[in-house]
What we know:
By secondary structure, the chain is of the alpha/beta class. It has two domains: 3-136, Response regulator (Rossmann fold, 3-Layer(aba) Sandwich), CATH 3.40.50; 152-247, CATH 2.40.50.1020. Helix content is 29%, strand content 31%. The protein has a five-stranded parallel beta sheet, with helices on both faces. A five-stranded antiparallel beta sheet has the order 10-9-8-12-11, with helices on one face. The longest helix has 14 residues, at 11-24. The protein is elongated.
Amino acid sequence: MPTAILADDERLMRDQLRLRLNQVWPELDIIGEAKNGEEAIALVQSHRPDFTFLDIRMPGKTGLEAAQAIGNQSHVVFITAYDQYALEAFERGAVDYVLKPAEPERLRLTVERLKARVSAPPNDMSEIVAQLAKQMGVALKPTHLQWIQASIGAELRLIPVEDILFFQSDEKYTRVQTSRYEALIRKPVRDLAEELDPTLFWQIHRSTLVNVNAIEGVARDLRGRHLVLIKGQPDKLEVSRSFVHLFKQM
């Protein structure tokens, strides 16, 4: 059974779209709803739906920004009020969309296209969204990683990045440390450094990223090495010479 998530900041619009989809595609299982882009991204990462319906204009992260973050994790269908420039951009980009209000006949045409895509892998929306934004004259905010999927024993947990104190890699795994627990992921620090907000996470060593808000202070040991002290944690994280300049003002 195909699955979907609906994201629109207007509850009435979500209710109407759910009703219309149930009428024209009763087999579609709507497994979650979001009222903004951040919630939509989190739902996609935790549930991996076949389809994600995204309102173009939402507070916080817009539908375009959410689609950029979703990448190829789900087939994206944009929801939009009638906008000539948006529709022209969607048509040129071969992007699926639903018009507000969702009229059954028009929605049925969209559903037929979606059914043909269920078994195909989703397109990576990152480049498509950049092209759409340019055609529509919309400026996109930089997209940074918002959540981390990490293993804690046999459990898989979704962790907001702002809750993470630091990341520390060894040859095989990366340790994800929060104030309450430790988890493991396979993504190395060098990849995380490219995906995380650099104003929130500083790389202090080739194997370590630290949340700026978690820094208690910086100390020096008997060998003259700089060590970052973490609030509420016993860890002392070594700063390599390449990154000592980050703490000159501290």
